[in-house]
Write a structure and sequence with these properties.
This protein is α+β, with helices and mostly antiparallel strands and 322 residues long. It is built from seven helices and 19 strands. It has helices at residues 115-122, 125-132, 161-170, 202-205, 261-270, 278-294, 309-320, and strands spanning 28-30, 33-36, 50-56, 69-73, 76-84, 87-92, 96-101, 106-110, 137-146, 149-154, 174-177, 180-184, 190-192, 197-200, 213-218, 223-227, 238-248, 255-258, 297-302.
Length: 322
């Protein structure tokens, strides 16, 4: 577990509590940060948090060296992360760059991508690198708020995570995050709400109805949907009550099975982000074990069917929070 500068546990120190920091000139909150930016951001929430500066710089970086890590899809490079003297440089497909100073914290946008696409990128890996320094964990999962309790919907890509989160929002439940969830380990684990935004494949979007939501951008791969302010809620932490791993099978019935904590640790590990160094991996593994042993975890087996979504949601709510 990481510590603050005064040596106290990051999960319990007073500076770690979202409501203790005012962020008086912020334009909204995300992941426990009160965000200040020189341009509009459409999917932030109300509330207070630790100040996070988002700025612009038109100068692309030079001599970045070899990447610390990267992500590819076939022969297509998607993301590269570089580390330089206590800060990070992130390259994203489309020649979009971000400079991240987690200790400040500051995120500098360098590139031509703007609007909701830039907003989604800022509050992906750049924001995760910042909140990880506070002892929090970035989980590749969606999160929803069901009557004041958070549930993680965990899965890799193409397992229906975003679709199910959107369906929850369509039934009036609050979306906490769509792809990257900020998990706060403590004796009472919680989730810090991210952007009130969904990035939905066009072929999926045409099957979904989400009251109180607006399409703000579209491209061939994604439809960007932002929830209205009345559906967002604030940025205060939401107690985490369970994790649901999304599995796919070819049967018509829906099955939810409780999973023993030791069996689920490898799955949780694959969905958490950590840097390629011993300290980061050790802290992340400790948090994963803590998550596996502190909240109930289920496997959900179901068909990937739009017609079945209401029944899937009903089963999750009744079983996991009933």
């Amino acid at each position: 577990m990481s510590t603050d500068e005064d040596g106290s546990d990051a999960s319990t120190s007073s500076i770690d509590l979202v409501s203790d920091a005012p962020g008086e000139d912020s334009i909204g909150t995300c992941f426990g940060y009160a965000v200040r930016a020189p341009f509009p951001l459409t999917a932030l929430r109300s509330g207070r948090g630790i100040p996070l500066e988002v700025i612009e710089d038109g100068s692309p970086p030079e001599n970045v060296g070899e990447p610390l890590m990267g992500w590819v899809e076939g022969d297509r490079a998607l993301v590269r992360l570089y580390q330089q003297s206590g800060e990070y440089l992130l390259w994203v497909e489309g020649d979009d760059w971000f400079r991240i100073e987690p200790g400040a914290p500051t995120i500098t946008c360098i590139g031509t991508v703007g609007g909701p696409r830039r907003e989604a990128r800022i509050f992906g890996l750049p924001a995760a690198l910042c909140f990880m320094t506070r002892g929090y964990v970035a989980v590749h999962a969606a999160a929803v708020d069901v009557d004041g309790s958070a549930l993680l919907l965990a899965a890799p890509g193409r397992f229906g995570k975003t679709t199910l989160a959107a369906a929850f929002a369509g039934q009036g439940y609050r979306l906490l995050s769509e792809d990257t969830t900020c998990y706060r380990p403590s004796s009472e684990p919680s989730v810090l709400p991210g952007l009130a935004m969904l990035r939905i494949r066009p072929d999926v979007h045409e099957h979904l109805v989400i009251p109180g939501a607006t399409v703000v951008a579209e491209d061939p791969e994604r439809v960007f949907v932002v929830l209205d302010e009345s559906a967002r809620g604030d940025g205060e932490p939401v107690p985490l009550r369970g994790v649901v791993f999304l599995r796919v099978w070819d049967r018509d019935e829906i099955m939810l099975e409780r999973v023993a904590s030791d069996r689920v640790i490898p799955d949780l590990w694959t969905l958490t982000f950590n840097l390629p160094d011993d300290r980061s991996r050790a802290e992340c593994f400790q948090a994963v074990v803590g998550l596996a042993t502190s909240v109930p975890i289920w496997n959900l087996y179901r068909r990937l069917s739009f017609e079945q979504l209401p029944a899937v949601i009903e089963r999750i709510v009744a079983t996991c929070l009933g």
